[in-house]
Amino acid sequence: MCALAAAFLLAAILVAGCGGEAPDPAASVAASVDGRDVPVRAVEAVRAESRLLGEAVGADEALDRAVERDLLRREAERLGVTADADAVRQRLDAVAEQLGGDAALESALRAAGMTRPQLQQGLESAELFEAVGRVKFPERRADAADARRFYRRDLDDFTTPAAVDLGAIFVRNEGIAGNALARLESGRPFEEVSRQFSIDPELKDQQGRLG
Predict the structure, then answer these.
(1) Strands 36-39 and 29-33: what pairing?
(2) What is the CA radius of gyration of the chain?
(3) Helix (H) or strand (E) segment spanning residue 106
(4) Where are the alpha helices (DSSP H) in 18-84?
(5) Which single residue of 30, 49, 50, 209 could bond 55 by disulfide (Cβ 3.0 to 4.6 Å)?
(6) Which residues contact 20 (CB under 8 A, 6 or more apart)?
(7) What is the DSSP string of 125-194?
(8) Model-level pTM?
């Protein structure tokens, strides 16, 4: 008993000596590119953004996108290019309008587990991408008429047949169903919730996907 008490005391001293706080997982490093760290929070922001847009983005693809954005910012810094604040604001207003207004945007952000600053940072990256392109390739310009001609000429490439991707989570009772639904509404991935709650072993192996 004395040895156990001493062990707890030693652990308390060590925690106090380190500031008494556990390391923040969101502040950890996901990758290092040319000596510069890409934090985990940048990858999580990409995944939250994909949930907001209704996309299914895995960890590897999210990491690739986060690295690409970091490289883009470096190139923008090298060129002295910044994202136009008014253009970013217009992009944000457009997203809100598409979703049905500011209240709908806030609801969608909560469901995706995303903050407004994270969304704004993603929109800044999109605007920065175009700004860098204009500086690096000034002779390559396409106006609205060019875009319409390209779309009409390659219409088949922009036409996707209607389809649905069905998923199911089978649970034992209504209470468990409510817990699973709450996890989904909080922004947790469908595959994760299915693995945690589904009682169907085959569906659990398929991450709840019916095809």
Answers:
(1) antiparallel
(2) 23
(3) helix 102-112
(4) 40-52, 59-79
(5) 50
(6) none
(7) HHHHHHHHHHHH-TT----HHHHHHHHHHTGGGG--------B----SSHHHHHHHHHHHHTT--HHHHH
(8) 0.52
50 with 56: CB under 8 angstroms?
yes
Q: Quote the tokens at residue 139.
A: 């002779």
Tell me how far CA of residue 33 lies from CA of 57, 74, 135, 160, 167, in angstroms. 21, 11, 24, 36, 37
Cα separation, 179 vs 191, in Å, equals 15
User: Contact, 211 vs 166, CB < 8 A?
Assistant: yes
Rounded CA-CA distance 121/119 in Å is 5
Tens-digit pLDDT profile for residues 156-197 = 777 777 777 787 888 778 888 888 888 888 888 878 888 877
Residue with tokens 């469901």, as numbered in its chain: 111
Token pair listed for 181: 């639904």
CB 39 within 8 A of CB 19: no
Label residue 27 by pLDDT band (50, 70, 90).
low
Distance of CA 10 to the CA centre of its chain: 40
